[in-house]
Amino acid sequence: xNIVVIIIASIIVIAGALARPSKIEEQxxxxxxxxTVEETPTPTPQKDANLPTITPTPTLQPPEKDANLxxxxxxxxxxxxxxxxxILESNGDVDAITDWYKEKIKAMGMNAKSFVxxxxxxxVLNKLVGDNGNIEIRxxxxxxxxxxxxxxxxxxxxx
Length: 159
Hints:
The protein has a domain at 67-158: 2-Layer Sandwich (TATA-Binding Protein), CATH 3.30.310. Strands 1-2-6-5-4-3 form a six-stranded antiparallel β-sheet, covered by helices on one side. The longest helix is centred in the N-terminal third of the chain and has 18 residues, at 2-19. The mean pLDDT is 80. Helices cover 20% and strands 30% of the residues. By secondary structure, it is of the alpha+beta class. The protein has helices spanning 2-19, 94-107, and strands at residues 77-81, 85-90, 112-120, 123-131, 135-143, 150-158.
């Protein structure tokens, strides 16, 4: 008898599920109304006057064809000029020339610096080197004993 009650209860549950109307109802469109899609414009970002202005900082660029003239000692004569070297002659004082190049290397922001000054028996050979990671500048200043002309050799090496 229990089986008969279970079968009848199952039939009633199934019949109720099939006879019950669906909760999802289809809506019929109302005449005269159409669905429209409205686009909302996106605002264009404006420059904010409160933001700080970033100013670019200058960096030392690799030498260009005429950049080697930056390394020409004032009132010196150009003997040879290329993209990576400059050979000059001057009648100026060796110490003044050496000091000018030392200051020039420092002013160009060179971090690695080497200044070797040698004077022996009237002969002068000064070697100055500056490097900032991008450019290496080498300056050799020489003067022989009894000569009035100072020879200056400037070479560039870029990384």
